[in-house]
Specification:
single chain; about 270 residues; mainly alpha; two-stranded antiparallel ribbon; 4 strands; about 65% helix
């Protein structure tokens, strides 16, 4: 059985209040910085994502044309049944997702709750996460690898219409007494003990500290620290990133146009 003295309980409550305030401030700073990134880099990130999707599609189309020319329609018919590689999600062409709600017993979630009786739009939430974890915002190879892994998870959750999974990645919880038609989020440790007890307070304190640690390790939070450091050095890091993204967009645009020209040439050569 969980035991603690009144003094330990009082200390834990004070630490919890301080930790929750620190977490709320960290989340506020993250939202503010994400807004800055969206304003200055969002359009470029979306354009780059669209170009990546286009070049992947065109590359597959060109490969199909060349294989058909080399091996003929019979082999291509056989290969058509093979599994095809997944394509990057286009942020400007996301399919709508239908959400259904029903009443469920309330539970205490460690994540930040959204507004009462509302759920975030899954498309909007996907865009937000795709920008937060965009690999082109990573400042080193390790952060880029982490961002790549997280983007795979985000894309899989979106493709499955798994709103709770996306909300968890965004640090959001379902509103009181509500769930989607997908599986409900797992219960947290604090949901299994009575609230405002010594055990609940200690457990909640651990959860908040874990949340702060997870947020602090986000690539975009590390980027925000780099931006602050660059500002002290009288550098505009977001401006430098914008220039890098413009260069990548120009290269991807050239690659897309080249693939289109190759497809047009191949189709003309195949025409009777």
């Amino acid at each position: 059985m969980f035991r603690t003295s009144d003094q330990d309980y009082h200390t834990a409550r004070l630490e919890l209040e301080s930790a929750e305030a620190e977490l709320a401030e960290l989340q506020r700073q993250l939202r503010t910085f994400e807004s800055q990134v969206d304003t200055r880099l969002g359009a470029l990130l979306d354009q780059l994502s669209e170009l990546n999707a286009d070049t992947t599609t065109l590359d597959e189309q060109l490969r199909h044309i060349r294989q058909q020319r080399l091996f003929g329609s019979e082999l291509m018919s056989y290969l058509a049944g093979a599994p095809q590689p997944g394509r990057p999600t286009r942020l400007d062409n996301l399919p709508p997702q239908e959400l259904q709600f029903k009443q469920t017993p309330a539970s205490q979630d460690q994540a930040t709750p959204v507004q009462a009786n509302t759920l975030p739009d899954i498309k909007t939430l996907y865009r937000r996460l795709a920008r937060r974890y965009h690999p082109d915002l990573a400042r080193n190879a390790a952060d880029r690898a982490q961002a790549d892994d997280l983007m795979k998870t985000i894309n899989q959750a979106y493709a499955a219409g798994d709103l709770p999974a996306l909300m968890k990645l965004a640090g959001l919880s379902l509103p009181y007494g509500m769930e989607t038609s997908q599986a409900a989020p797992k219960q947290t440790a604090t949901s299994r003990v009575p609230k405002d007890t010594p055990e609940w307070t200690i457990t909640r304190l651990r959860e908040v500290r874990q949340q702060m640690n997870e947020l602090s390790n986000l690539p975009i939070v590390k980027l925000s620290l780099d931006v602050k450091l660059a500002r002290h050095q009288r550098r505009d890091l977001l401006g430098e990133l914008a220039a890098e993204l413009q260069y990548k967009v120009a290269r991807k645009t050239a690659e897309r146009d080249y693939l289109r020209s190759q497809i047009d040439a191949s189709q003309r050569a195949s025409a009777p």
